[in-house]
Design brief:
The chain is about 30% helix and about 25% strand. It is of the alpha+beta class. Strands 5, 6, 13, 14, 15, 16 and 17 form a seven-stranded antiparallel sheet that branches. Strands 1-7-4-2-3 form a five-stranded mixed sheet, sandwiched between helices. The longest helix has 20 residues.
Length: about 475
């Protein structure tokens, strides 16, 4: 084996339940030290420290503050942008630098303390955390929402993903009830995995019947109990080293997990611009490239963790890779974002750490996927106890061509996908549509009339002919 071959040798996870809990910097330090211990590596030895963007708090120098805590002087530091694929990109960067001989060990970590932030807010207090960035930097997304999306209040994932869900539901010919029942049946096994995971945020097994009656709507047809839970206090870390350093540290072969292949692809950034709302060619391309680089197939996977912020992410992934959603291997090794916890951009660190544990115990291969932004960014990684493959890099293997978006439109259109936004009391506030236009392209529209909102939730609206009227910024649909 090439002495520069990267391998994962240290993992750590932490979930804090007492409130208020520690700040993110404390959590970074705790899991970094635990992962270093698992790797038999002194915490001050890291050549690279990389941190996933935290929504909880903006520090003046995230990687610098953590390095100071650990007594490390890393040659390489990185702080990611927002997105569920961020851990994949950082891990891939670390592996590439180790393989190139630029580094021999790297820490990738992330933490959120959003539950603690919420506890302070409820008490009317400010979080008393250290080293704030002054001035506070802009939010860490790579690209903000399209002006037409902002005008139509379409920037929350619970609405964008729901629009894609309704498009897939209609394409499959399901009724509203059939989609909800299938979702509950698909996600109930995830709750059992979470119940057995000591790091999971929600550890109560649920039946399909429980989830089918899953609480208030948050973005119709999604209910609170079937979407990612972000307000958690959780942290995770992984340590990658070169094979040569692993040998010097005395890490046994059965404690080493190898990144055999990974790939990244992109759908369009705007949901309305997606060539097909119900499916993702980018997912299929990323999966194909990752399996090809790894020299394995889906059938070789002994364990799988699909990114599960919303049901549509699971369903489109299963469609893309040809996986039965009820495959006996299951869809998650953690319990997924709705039950294990969805700590903003960090989840893939938890699924990677959990997958490493599974593979150390069983051997073989495992698939870990990530999704970023509005089902836009896709990363697929094959991990294995068997070295080999060709790692790959972050260059997109596929980028979708966008459909034009028409900001303001008067005239007839056909509903392509939709949702109904609900307030915190569960009351329907407005409908948000993506519509196909007669001359090509797409537009957004609101539904505001109460009787039309009620109708949108009682029957299939996809395929409905509507008429849009615009004030130049916001389109309103009626039928």
């Amino acid at each position: 084996m090439d002495p520069r071959t990267p391998c994962l040798v240290g993992v750590a996870q932490r979930t804090v339940r007492q409130q208020p809990g520690p700040e993110p910097l404390d959590l970074w330090e705790q899991v970094a030290r635990e992962a270093a211990g698992d790797a038999r590596l002194p915490a001050g030895r890291f050549d690279s420290i990389q941190i996933v963007y935290t929504d909880s708090w903006q520090y003046d120098s995230p990687t610098g503050r953590l390095a100071e805590r650990l007594g490390a002087t890393p040659r390489h530091q990185a702080y990611s942008r927002v997105g569920g694929t961020a851990p994949h990109l950082l891990i891939g960067e670390a592996a590439a630098r180790i393989a190139a001989g630029e580094l021999d060990c790297a820490l990738v970590t992330g933490a959120e303390a959003l539950a603690t932030r919420r506890a302070y807010r409820k008490a009317g207090e400010r979080a008393p955390w250290s080293h704030p960035a002054v001035p506070k930097p802009p939010y860490g997304w790579e690209r903000g929402p399209h002006p037409a999306e902002l005008a139509h209040d379409l920037f929350l994932p619970v609405h964008t993903y729901a629009i894609l869900e309704t498009a897939r539901r209609a394409a499959r010919g399901w009724t509203i009830h059939e989609e909800m029942a299938d979702r509950a049946r698909m996600m109930a096994p995830m709750t059992r995995v979470a119940a057995a995971n000591p790091y999971a945020w929600r550890r109560t097994p649920r039946t399909p019947e429980d989830l089918a009656d899953g609480g208030r709507f948050v973005g119709w047809p999604y209910t609170r109990d079937t979407v990612a839970v972000m307000e958690v206090d959780q942290a995770a870390a992984v340590v990658l080293v070169s094979a040569a350093l692993a040998d010097r540290l005395g890490v046994p072969d059965d404690r080493r997990v190898h990144l055999r292949g990974w790939a990244y692809a992109e759908d369009t950034w705007e949901v309305a611009a997606r060539p097909a709302l119900d499916a993702s060619q980018a997912m299929a391309s990323a999966a194909s490239a990752a399996f090809g680089r790894a020299g394995v197939t889906l059938g070789d996977m002994g364990a799988i963790d699909l990114y599960s912020c919303f049901a549509i992410a699971l369903r489109q992934a299963c469609d893309a890779i040809g996986l039965d959603p009820f495959d006996p291997r299951g869809l998650t090794v953690t319990g997924g974002l709705p039950y294990a916890g969805g700590p903003a951009s960090d989840y893939v660190l938890h699924s990677t750490a959990a997958m490493a544990g599974v593979l150390r115990e069983r051997g073989g291969h495992g698939l870990v996927t990530g999704v970023g932004m509005h089902l836009t960014k896709h990363a697929y990684a094959v991990w294995s106890t068997e070295p080999g493959g060709a790692t790959g890099d972050a260059r997109p293997v596929f980028t979708a061509e966008p459909v034009p978006i028409v900001p303001a439109y008067d005239g007839p259109a056909v509903v392509a996908g939709y949702t109904v936004a609900h307030d915190r009391e569960g009351v329907a506030e407005r409908g948000i549509l993506v519509v196909d236009l007669p001359g090509g392209g797409r537009a957004h529209a609101h539904v505001v009339e109460p009787d039309l909102l009620a109708e949108a939730e009682s029957r299939e609206l996809v395929g409905q002919l509507v008429r849009l009227s615009s004030n130049g910024q916001v389109n309103v649909a009626r039928w």
